[in-house]
TrEMBL record, chain A:
It is found in: Basolateral cell membrane. Residues 41-447 form the Major facilitator superfamily (MFS) profile domain. Residues 496-508 have a biased composition (Acidic residues). One of its GO terms (cellular component) is basolateral plasma membrane. This is Major facilitator superfamily (MFS) profile domain-containing protein. SUPFAM superfamilies: MFS general substrate transporter. The chain crosses the membrane at residues 78-100, 107-125, 131-152, 164-184, 196-215, 265-289, 301-321, 333-349, 355-377, 389-411, 423-445. Residues 460-475 have a biased composition (Polar residues). Keywords: Cell membrane, Membrane, Symport, Transmembrane, Transmembrane helix, Transport. Belongs to the major facilitator superfamily. Monocarboxylate porter (TC 2.A.1.13) family. Residues 1-28, 456-508 are annotated as: Disordered.
Automatic annotation (TrEMBL), chain B:
This is Ig-like domain-containing protein. It comes from Oryzias javanicus (Javanese ricefish). GO terms for cellular component: cell-cell junction; plasma membrane. Its main location: membrane. Residues 1-25 form the signal peptide. Keywords: Disulfide bond, Glycoprotein, Immunoglobulin domain, Membrane, Signal, Transmembrane, Transmembrane helix. GO terms for molecular function: cell adhesion molecule binding. The lineage of its organism: Eukaryota, Metazoa, Chordata, Craniata, Vertebrata. Residues 39-141, 143-239 form the Ig-like domain. Gene3D superfamilies: Immunoglobulins. It holds the Pfam family Ig_3. The chain crosses the membrane at residues 249-267. It is found in: Membrane. Residues 273-309 are annotated as: Disordered. One of its GO terms (biological process) is cell-cell adhesion.
Length: 508, 309
């Protein structure tokens, strides 16, 4: 009979020091992620999927000038296409999470790929700007949203010990695909015009279906009694909830507000929001700033390519570093450090007047940006654990929608008011740096509180279900036969006992 | 008179103005610094090139017919000859009767010439060439376009296309816009025909909309910004292709995607069949049945076990 694994949610994420390892028994239904093998093919699939998701809205801007002329639209009307696509991609997070939990990653990525392909192909026949908003913006955005969410989820299912590296490699898809799509789009534009290029781009996005096919669902080894008990528990919980209760739990499936009770989650959310607000504006305005400093236009555009190129290598590198023995337990601090580094880069940018210095800035910007983005979802996985990650990431992306859409226009407003780019960089640098500092300080506080709670918790003998609402209860019932006193993490962070070091219990 | 020392010229002018009793600002050369050009012929514009040992080139933007005074000042080298000869040329051909001898004043040799630029045929490259080979070029032209499109505009048969043309804010406004079609030597103007061409022009922008494209419409189109003195041309190439052209790569990619997906799924089915047959041999009990169910479940794409009833 399964026992209730009653870990309070805020105790599930304490990699900072709670390395008192449970002897993760492999015959428990709580499966041990494969951490390799087919997992690396899944990383390739996620790489492709995430690559298209992040680079398509940017790469499409190459077509905008031609579309603008043909359809007779103004520049801001055209720019809305990208904004709508990004907004839908982020806002659709909760819907995507629910679908991924219900159907698994593979069908969702395949459907996402099909939607993207259909979106681009229909857009190639467009006669009006609203048509493009609907096809590229909404349908395309939805497709990308499915891709993003499902890819991240399946990485969390396949990897645990090597998860930071897998995340770094998968997130590297974004700069790789941008580097590859941007010149390709230019070439296609010259040969086929924007309509033909959209058609071919749609075909290429169908490759997301191939990525989806690679995402074979994990088959955890189970013993029959556990599985049977699971099903019985499922049935009983389903029968017991009344109609209203079921309605509420369905609504709660979309936006699991219980997350807001989780201190670690709130800290992550605030830090992330600050970062996203300041992250994209420097990219948008970098070439304009360089031109204003006297750099010629072609070299200014080159700066962004340099940044993207550096980003390509920094992301897997950061994943590798984050995977190491010393950093992994302190990954939240590493994340905060990466943000501070990024913010410092921006604060120093206005001092860069010559082209050589601007190239240096672009390199360091690429490093900082890559570090943050390699860790951004890894830290969330670390906080939330496998089971809660899909819903958490949906919630995070829909909240991140707002700073992402507000950031660049606010920065543009600053440029318009002060007629000087340096205030933009000061603002972005300050906001990002404060996000990083917030994360580090609050995480120190958070782990301190966790240790205190754990000490109190160990004092009380009764193991109480402190987190119980319907959804997470069924997820927490993972037939853990592990003793709760040593169960400090939702996931067995590191199954191999070799890595448990006695001095790591203190998270400094 | 042209070779008078500067101080004498200034004295003469002062005497003239004093005798007139008032300063006729208009008759004097509008450019403020000496040496001024001869007051008798008033130049509307004056361009100076200062040379030392290297050639120089200047672009001169002209909008209207005017009198243009071009001057070249060559800094004397250590030879310090009293006289040096020079001539003027237009588009590489020496202008007849333009050869003159410049005297050394203030370490420099000055030559200047007044040109009356009446129309587009008089635009071109004007040069002053000194005896020692040093020259200054003045390229007279109407305001050029800033961005020249190097890639062709591509559109499809039966579709329409809009060819844009823009003169930036920094440059002077053209009087009107015209569109031409042809090649470098022979251009014919496009007139508005309701079924084929529509021209929509604003102050700084002009668009040519070509409707119902056919393959004969492909070629180079020139957008002309018309000024009083001439027209600046901006070439735009138009390519017309059929719908089949991008369709071929698209179908190619589609086939590749379908093949890859099929291969992946087939490999997976084969591997799971192997696993289940192995499982049959090893565990002939309930575990086995569960594994098989779960394998099938995996292929159905559900990864959340607990929800599957």
């Amino acid at each position: 009979m399964s026992s209730v694994a009653a870990e309070p949610p805020h105790e599930q994420q304490a990699p900072g020091g709670k390395r008192i390892m449970s002897p993760a028994p492999t015959d428990a239904a709580e499966y041990k992620p494969p951490d390799g093998g087919w997992g690396w093919m899944v990383v390739v699939g996620a790489h492709i999927s995430i690559g298209f998701a992040y680079s398509t809205p940017k790469a499409l801007s190459i077509f905008f000038k031609d579309i603008q002329e043909d359809l007779g639209a103004s520049y801001s009307e055209i720019a809305w296409i990208s904004s709508i696509m990004l907004a839908v991609m982020y806002a659709g997070g909760p819907v995507s999470s629910v679908l991924v939990k219900r159907f698994g990653s593979r069908p969702i990525v395949i459907v996402g790929g099909l939607m993207c392909g259909v979106a681009m192909v229909t857009a190639s026949f467009g006669r009006s700007i609203v048509y493009l908003y609907l096809s590229i913006g909404i349908i395309g955005g939805c497709g990308l949203c499915f891709n993003l969410n499902a890819s991240l989820t399946i990485i969390s299912k396949y990897f645990l010990t090597k998860r930071p590296l897998a995340n770094g490699l998968a997130m590297a898809g974004s700069p790789v695909f941008l580097c590859f799509l941007a010149p390709l789009n230019q070439f296609l534009l010259g040969d086929f015009g924007w309509r033909g290029s959209l058609l071919i781009l749609g075909g290429m996005m169908l490759n997301c279906c191939v990525a989806g096919a690679l995402m074979r669902p994990v088959t955890p080894p189970r013993n029959s009694s556990a599985a049977a008990a699971q099903k019985i528990m499922e049935k009983t919980t389903q029968h017991n909830t009344s109609k209203k209760g079921r309605c509420l739990s369905n609504a709660r499936k979309f936006l699991d507000l219980s997350f807001f009770k989780d201190r670690g989650f709130i800290i992550y959310l605030i830090g992330n929001t600050l970062f996203i607000f300041g992250a994209y504006a420097p990219i948008v305005f970098l070439s304009a700033y360089a031109v204003s400093q006297g750099v010629e236009e072609y070299s200014a555009a080159y700066l962004l390519s340099i940044m993207g190129f550096v980003d390509m290598f920094v992301r897997p590198g950061t994943g590798l570093i984050a995977n190491s023995k010393w950093i992994r337990p302190r990954i939240q601090y590493f994340f905060g450090f990466a943000m501070i580094f990024n913010g410092a880069c921006h604060l120093l940018c206005p001092m860069m007047k010559s082209y050589a210095f601007l190239v240096g800035y672009a390199v360091f910007f690429g490093v900082g940006f890559g570090m943050v983005f390699a860790l951004i979802f890894e830290c969330l996985m670390d906080l939330m654990g496998n089971q809660r990650f899909p819903s958490a990431v949906g919630l995070v992306t829909i909240i991140e929608c707002f700073p992402m859409l507000l950031g660049p226009p606010t920065a543009g407003l600053l440029v318009d008011i002060f007629q000087d780019y340096k205030y933009l960089f000061f603002m972005c640098g300050a906001v990002i740096m404060s996000g990083g500092l917030f994360l580090i300080i609050m995480n120190i506080y958070h782990y301190h509180m966790l240790e205190k709670e754990k000490a109190e918790h160990n004092g009380a003998p009764s193991q109480d279900a402190e987190n119980q609402d319907g959804v997470s209860l069924s997820e927490a019932q993972r037939e853990s036969t592990e003793p709760e006193t040593t169960q400090t993490n939702g996931d067995p962070q590191d199954p191999s006992p070799d890595d448990t070091e006695p001095d790591v219990t203190d998270h400094f | 008179m042209e070779n008078m020392p500067a101080s004498w010229k200034l004295l003469l002018m002062l005497v003239l103005t004093a005798s007139c009793g008032r300063v006729h600002a208009e008759t004097l050369d509008p450019s403020p610094k000496p040496p001024a050009s001869a007051p008798a012929l008033s130049a509307n514009m004056r361009k100076v090139a200062v040379l030392q040992s290297q050639n120089s080139t200047q672009n001169v933007q002209l909008l209207n017919p005017l009198n243009l005074s071009l001057e070249c000042s060559l800094t004397a080298d250590h030879d310090k000859l009293p006289n040096i000869s020079a001539f003027w040329s237009q588009d590489g051909r020496e202008i007849p009767d333009s050869r003159l001898s410049a005297t050394l004043e203030d370490q420099q040799y000055h030559v200047r010439r007044l040109f009356y630029i009446a129309g587009e045929e008089m635009l071109g490259r004007y040069s002053c060439v000194f005896e020692n080979g040093v020259r200054a070029d003045f390229i007279l032209a109407t305001p050029p376009f800033g961005e020249v499109r190097d890639k062709p505009v591509v559109s499809y048969g039966g579709d329409f296309v809009v060819l844009p043309c823009k003169m930036e804010e920094a440059k002077p406004k053209p009087l009107s816009w015209r569109w031409f079609r042809g090649n470098k030597t022979h251009k014919e103007q496009i007139s508005e025909q309701p079924q084929r061409f529509q021209i929509h022009s604003e102050e700084r922008k002009s668009k040519l909309k070509v409707i119902n494209l056919t393959h004969e419409d492909a070629g180079v189109y020139y957008c002309g910004a018309v000024y009083a003195i001439g027209t600046t041309m901006n070439p735009v190439e138009l390519k017309v292709i059929t719908y089949q052209e991008p369709l071929k790569p698209f179908i190619g990619i589609l086939i590749e995607v379908v093949l890859l997906v099929a291969v992946i799924f087939l490999c997976e089915k084969r591997r799971s069949k192997k696993n289940t047959s192995k499982g049959n041999e090893e565990n002939p009990d309930q575990n086995n049945i569960n594994l098989q169910e779960e394998e099938k479940g995996a292929e159905e794409g559900s990864s959340t076990r607990q929800r599957r009833v």
